[in-house]
Amino acid sequence: MKKYDVAVIGSGPGGYVAAIRCAQLGLKTALIEKYDTLGGTCLNVGCIPSKSLLDSSHHFESAQKHFSEHGIEIQGEIKINFKQMIDRKAAVVEQTTKGIDYLMDKNKIDVLRGLGSFQDPTHIKIEGKDAQTIEAKNSIIATGSKPATLPFIKIDKERVITSTEALKLKDIPKHMIVIGGGVIGLELGQVYRRLGAEVSVIEYAERITPVMDAGLSRELMKVMKKQGVKFYLSHGVNKVERKGDIVHVVATDKKGVDIPFEGDYCLVSVGRRPYTDGLNAQAAGVQINEKGQVVVNDHLQTTSSNIYAIGDVVQGAMLAHKAEEEGVVVAEFLAGQKPHIDYNLIPNVIYTWPEVAAVGKTEEELKQQGVNYKTGQFPMRALGRARASMDTDGFVKILADAETDEVLGVHMIGARAADLIAEAVTAMEFRASAEDIARMSHSHPTYAEAVKEAALAATENRSIHS
Q1: Cα–Cα distance measured from residue 205 to residue 431, given in angstroms and rounded to the nearest whole number
Q2: What's the confidence (pLDDT) of residue 459?
Q3: Given CB 3.0 to 4.6 Å as the disulfide criterion, which of 111, 190, 286, 327 pairs with 18?
């Protein structure tokens, strides 16, 4: 029987990063994965393929709508080779997952293919290609999540689909009905809207992206409406039925009126659920709560002291980078170090265009907590760089403590917001004030100048360019 210091179950961003950090710290490590490729949801059917399609569809939309303004003339009709678009996405995924294979070899991590299930706290049975039972002094559960659904919806993976199927369709939908106005629904909805589909987003809450700052929600919906996406807020879906190639959806609006929808595809994007199927957690004394999450303490330690859990399978935001940070924390804790995570400073991003990004507290949270704060906001359209690139939608908003000036939250929507948010995270990690950011030199012309200008606006309303 093979013996390991650490066995990691699941090879998504949390799992493979945890395995690498364990190996770097001198721990003999095994990585257990039931699927043929490493990388989990993120690399195979999530972050990476969705961003590939977002990028391809963005190029198509630019060629259709904006090239002529740049003085670029194209002879003839601009056409979509949808198969090639999907093939390119698959090639990006393959290249990325092979990169994880390389990292496992480089760090001398044993990759064991098969379904891992606990026999007791220190023994894991693997069923599949590398069938065996191993002994692990410590284990890390990193089994991630799966798309959630509603009890009355039957996902047939053909016309009533989840994000997994939406990434590998054979044809472009005529009308895609999207149930859920969160990150996944908006990103994939925008992909297919750009490619010519009619897209209807049905959201139960009174606004899209309900966990983000309300200002971002309003701005993103305004922009996506201009792009042709239709929104139905405060609508509760109560029926989804497929008849042939048509999907019939019924949603009840806030007045109690039933609204019918018909489309050739229905994307169910109502969130994700923790995935522990087949883990046999109870045999190891690992507690799972009523939400399906593995119960952990502040050190991500489960109710079985030598077993830890990270990522989507525990409480908190279901984000790849959150899982990665937790993987590193557990590895370093096992090695006797004293790592930490500030969960307040894990950024959240939506990769639509314009991109949306945020870190720290929202205005709604600060009001609820009774915090006395001040606001500085700057529109992207006031930037020379934004006008030069024709990306003028959006703004940057900085929330700072009214007395100490410490930055409490940064919320942005605009070009490259996914990258710009790192500046805010860095500043907040060092407990910067709005004035600290305002006095930093920012290159001109860049989108990042909007961060400086928003900080100036929060500091005695000193914004220069608005």
Answers
A1: 33
A2: 95
A3: 327
Residue-level pLDDT at 238: 97
Distances (CA, A) of 219 to 214, 380, 391, 412, 420: 9, 12, 14, 10, 18
- Please state the length of the chain: 466
How many CA atoms lie less than 13 Å away from 399 in the CB half-sphere? Answer: 20
The amino acid that residue 145 corresponds to is S
Average pLDDT of span 344-365: 98
Structure tokens at 299: 């050190």
pLDDT in tens, 425-466: 999 999 999 999 999 999 999 999 999 999 999 998 999 999
Residues 359, 365, 369, CA angle at the centre, nearest 5°? 130
Q: Residue holding tokens 């914004």?
A: 463
Q: Is 294 helix (H, G, I), strand (E, B) or coil?
A: strand
Dist CA 89 CA 85 (whole Å) = 6
Whether the Cβ atoms of residue 340 and residue 328 lie closer than 8 Å to each other: no
Instruction: Tell me whether residue 83 is exposed, middle or buried, using C-beta atoms within 10 angstroms of its C-beta: 0 to 12, 13 to 18, 19 or more.
Output: exposed
Query: Among 258, 264, 192, 257, which Cα is nearest to 230's?
Result: 192
Q: Provide the pLDDT for residue 464.
A: 96
**Calpha distance 40→44 (Å, rounded):** 6
The tokens of 79 are what?
């056409």
Quote the crossing angle between the two packed helices 13-24 and 320-334, to the nearest 10°.
30
Amino acid at 208: I
Find tokens 């009214």 and name the residue.
402
Dihedral of the alpha carbons of 399, 402, 405, 407, in degrees to the nearest 10 = -20
- What mean pLDDT comes out for the span 386-398? 97
The residues that are catalytic are 444
Give the mean model confidence (pLDDT) for residues 234-256: 98
Q: DSSP assignment of 82-111, as one string? A: HHHHHHHHHHHHHHHHHHHHHHHHHTTPEE
Rounded to an integer, what distance in angstroms lies between the CA atom of residue 19 and that of residue 1? 20
Q: What is the pLDDT of residue 50?
A: 98
User: How far, in Å, CA of 427 to CA of 406, rounded?
Assistant: 10
Give me the percent of the chain exceeding a pLDDT of 90. 100
Domains parsed from the chain with CATH numbers: 3-146+273-341 (3.50.50.60), 160-270 (3.50.50.60), 345-458 (3.30.390.30)
Rounded to whole angstroms, how far apart are CA atoms 387 and 381?
6
Residue with tokens 């996406």: 229
Query: How crowded is the C-beta side of 444, counted as CA atoms within 13 Å?
Result: 8
Q: How far apart are the first and last CA of the chain?
A: 68
- Alpha helix segments (H runs only) across 207-270: 214-226
Model confidence over 283-327: pLDDT tens digits? 999 999 999 999 999 999 999 999 999 999 999 999 999 999 999
311, two tokens: 């990522």
Beta bridge partners of 355: 414
